[in-house]
Amino acid sequence: RIASTTIPPELDENGFYMQNYVNHPEYFMAYNSGIYYNPASAYIRNRIADGAAEIAEKYDVDGIHFDDYFYPTDDESIDAEQYAAYVNETEEPLTLHEWRTANVNALIAAVYSRVKEANENVQFGISPQGNLENNEMINADVYTWCAQAGYIDYVCPQLYYSFENEALPFETALQNWCALKRLPSIKLYIGLAVYKAGTDADNGTWLNTTDTLAKQIDRAKEAGADGVVLYAVDHLTGENAKAEMANAVPELERFKEAQQN
Question: Which of 82, 172, 179, 180 has the fewest beta carbons closer than 10 A?
Fold first, then answer.
């Protein structure tokens, strides 16, 4: 994602988008006042992969971490021209959904390859949405990334739900991800919503509780996950999450001990 409605408020005239959107509109997609790189473009895929490799090579980082943004919508209009061009030059073209998914997979594979070439010790992982159906809609092919080599080192689904979440309870989402076919080399880390602790999120099911995170950490451990990731760092010491974090820390220590043993 290059820009949302208000972030940044203005794009640099010398930046990549401003210098290229007229002559190379195929590099970009627009949706709901947002601007996105188009993974259908081989040039864009290489640009993103090169950027990740530059970080892996030149900086002392443990990993490269992608969030859950791929195609911003399943609306057919955002890349209609590019898809039409692909169909016209292909004898047996993929459907739009298949084509978009293949584009994202090509991007992920390119990033993984370039990162490992730059520094084989740097991990590359993705934090997709916690709802598997939502991932499929935005062409995030977690099934392939987890089951085949050459895409990721770890997956960290955003299980940002309370146990009582009506749309998708935490336990259901956890079981879905633990059941996903995954290579032994690919780690499963469970993303937890510290930012919801002590708030009225999920119809108020985070209110009047001080041990939701602790229970979720324990369940992730019992279910066989390789670890947890707490989102977001600025909430770890916030007042809303203070009681939850006090109970979560001992569970984190127990999880760590279990992994070491």
Answer: 179
Q: CA-CA-CA-CA torsion for 250, 253, 255, 258, nearest 10 degrees?
A: -130
Q: Where are the alpha helices (DSSP H) in 78-137?
A: 80-88, 96-118, 132-137
Contact present, 72 and 3 (Cβ < 8 Å): no
Q: Which tens digit of pLDDT belongs to each residue from 42-56?
A: 999 999 999 999 999
240 lies in the same domain as 164: yes
- Between CA 45 and CA 230, with CA 155 as vertex, the angle to 5 degrees is 115
Can you state the angle between helices 42-58 and 96-118, rounded to 10 degrees? 30
Number of domains in the chain: 2
Reported as a single tens digit per residue, the pLDDT across 75-92 is 999 999 999 999 999 999
| Owner of token pair 């401003």 | 18
